[in-house]
Amino acid sequence: MQSDTAAVIEAFDLTKRFGGPAEPPVLDAVNLRVEQGEVFGYIGPNGAGKTTTLRLFLGLLRPSSGSVRVFGEIPGERDELRARIGVLLENSGLDDRMTAFQSIDYHARLYGVGDRKRKIERLLDFVGLLDKRNERVGTFSTGMKRKLGLARSIIHDPELLLLDEPSAGLDPEAQKMVRELLQELASARRMTVFINSHHLDEVERLCSRIAILHRGRIRACDTVKSLQAGKRGHVRVRLSEPHHAVRAAALLEGWLGPDAISVQGPRIEVSLNGRTTPELVRLLVEDGLSVEEVSPALRRLEDVYFDIVGGEGGAA
Amino acid sequence: MKTFDHVLTVASKEIREIVTNRGLVFSGVFFAGFLSVMNGLGLGDADVGLRAQLNNALFSTCALIAMFVGYLYAGQTYLREKQTGIAETLLCAPVSLRSIWFGKALGVMVPSWIIAILAAATITAIASRNAGQIMMPNSVLIVHLLVAVPLFILAAVALLGFAQLMLGMRENMVVNMVTIFVLFTALAGTQLIVKRAEFVTWGAVGLLVAASLALLAITAGLSRFLSRERIVRTIS
Questions:
Q1: DSSP B138
Q2: What is the DSSP string of B13-38?
Q3: CA–CA separation, B115 vs B35, rounded Å?
Q4: Residue A281 β-bridge partners
Q5: ipTM of the complex as predicted
Q6: How far is CA B2 from CA A273, B87, B89, in A?
Q7: What are B30-42's pLDDT values in tens digits?
Q8: Residues in contact with A109: Cβ distance below 8 Å, sequence separation at least 6, in sequence order
Q9: Which of B99, B8, B235 is nearest to A82 (CA)?
Q10: CB B94 to CB A93 under 8 A?
Q11: Cα(A1)–Cα(A80) distance, integer angstroms
């Protein structure tokens, strides 16, 4: 998907092998483009290569073949490039013996952040940990560590935020907080966010585009809506009087066959089997049923995901 | 200037980590205290004078005590961070690998050196008690303790830290065992030389300084082979 906006991340046939050429690649010819201000979801089962991809973006690993550019540069060539990137890895990377304040302050110093005290306190307040500023990280719950890790990852106002399972171990309230925080970072600050996640609900709510990775290859990459649109010729019918759904379903079954119809509460999902939407509407109206809406049937992201990865998903 | 700031930031963090870790401070002080007391009590029963024995002991034992403490602290600084994944987040910062590696070595050197000075004070106090008079280290030893010992610890820790970052966990277990063996053999060896004729000279101190600087230079050269990929791939 090419566009006029600036590419923040570009991967061209990105391949990574651990071991000899005979070993199967962990990442196999991945092509990817993430644009400025995008919230991009990267999903796949364990071992699909998500963390390896992130490490390649960070310059922690070198590609076996292909290439990757972050802000037009090869990651790992200049230390300064890292100053433009914020990172929260799956392991939050916090030292249990440091206090919350010290944890962020340490990174702020390494990133050359000025006016540190004010910025750190503002961020701690933002993630709800200001009253814990002098407590050791070792006493924190997983959720608190995640929030602190997120605060640390944005202390230097990065242009790109790379997150590995940002909601791992968080309770629903904290997940919501993280989601809102990420939404704000993306919209208000125009920060580009790349999220590795198992959490399909989170990805669906947050991301404008997603890629589904399976066995080292990208199997699908598109907007969430496009992926959910699924097969052509599937529509969702909503009647003005929901209690007529069963009657309408029976009528459509007679017309299209029983396998083409699925009743979901007041809605009926219809596989048109070559027929057209106007024909469908005419049939229902002629039978005295009032149609309120006919829309393309969107599949749940979970269904899309499992269609692609089969039974190996393991996503939440 | 930025590199210097990074080194200092990493070093000051490591110093704070070590001095606020009671277990680590206790193990270092206990080991140094035990060895220095044993050394101090062992002085006196030999043909050479007590002064010569004290100088010999301060020269050899203090450097080895410092190195052992440095070894203990390096494990916490390099290996623990690598095992717990803290190191990977640090590798994502805009800091050169050499700054991280050297900053950590500096951070380990400072508390190890302080403990070595305390060990020297303990040995001197015990020797003074045995002699019935206050015995002070001579100028050669003062230079040794203030210049050669910290350089020696820095070089040893930098080499150890390099190995810990470079190697996988299994190889590191072997390195640790070899290091402990070498240290204990060297400590036992000092008992044999302490009671011989005094060997503490400007030349000996100069030799130790030169050897430490050479080791540091060699390790700095070797650190070119250190890469983020190497560290990340040897984490587990």
A1: -
A2: HHHHHHHT-HHHHHHHHHHHHHHHHH
A3: 12
A4: none
A5: 0.86
A6: 67, 20, 19
A7: 989 998 898 888 7
A8: A116, B5, B9
A9: B99
A10: no
A11: 29
Q: Could you tell me which of B92, B199, B102, B193 has the C-alpha nearest to residue B141?
A: B199
Please give the Cα distance from A63 to A70 (Å, whole number): 13
- What number is the average pLDDT over the span A72-83? 92
Structure tokens, B223: 């650190």
Show which of residues 52-81 on chain A sit within 8 Å of chain B, judged by CB atoms: 55, 58-62, 76, 79-81
Contact A276, A263 (CB under 8 A): no
- pLDDT, one tens digit per residue, over A270-279 is 888 888 889 9
Cα separations in angstroms, B22 against A95, A101, A138, B18, B235? 16, 21, 15, 8, 26
pLDDT beyond 60 at A3? no
Which residue of chain A is at minimal alpha-carbon distance from B86? A93
Q: Rounded to a whole number, what is the distance in Å from the CA of A309 to chain B's nearest CA?
A: 27
The answer to whether A8 and A39 are in contact (CB under 8 A) is: no
One-letter amino acid at A46 equals N
Q: Which strands, in side-by-side order, build the sheet including A261-264?
A: A261-264, A267-271, A234-239, A291-296
CA distance B6 to chain A (A): 6
- Overall residue count recorded for chain A in this entry: 316
Structural contact between residues A56 and A75, judged by C-beta atoms closer than 8 angstroms: yes
Q: What is the pTM of this model?
A: 0.84
Nearest to A29 by CA among A250, A213, A300, A189: A213
Which residue carries 């702020």 as its tokens? Answer: A108
Q: For residue A131, give both structure tokens.
A: 């009253």
* SS3 track for chain A: CCCCCCEEEEEEEEEECCCCCCCCCCEEEEEEEEECCCEEEEECCCCCCHHHHHHHHHCCCCCCEEEEEECCECCCCCHHHHCCEEEECCCCCCCCCCEHHHHHHHHHHHCCCCCHHHHHHHHHHHCCCHHHCCCEHHHCCHHHHHHHHHHHHCCCCCCEEEEECCCCCCCHHHHHHHHHHHHHHHHCCCCEEEEEECCHHHHHHHCCEEEEEECCEEEEEEEHHHHHHCCCCEEEEEECCHHHHHHHHHHHHHHHCHHHEEEECCEEEEECCCCCHHHHHHHHHHCCCCEEEEEECCCCHHHHHHHHHHHHCCCC
Is the Cβ–Cβ distance between B188 and B101 less than 8 Å?
Answer: no
Chain B residues touching A109 at Cβ < 8 A: 5, 9
> Left, alpha or beta for B123 (phi > 0: left; psi -120 to 50: alpha)?
alpha
- Tell me how close the Cα of B26 comes to any Cα of chain A, in angstroms: 16
Please identify which residue in the block is written with the tokens 């193990």: B27
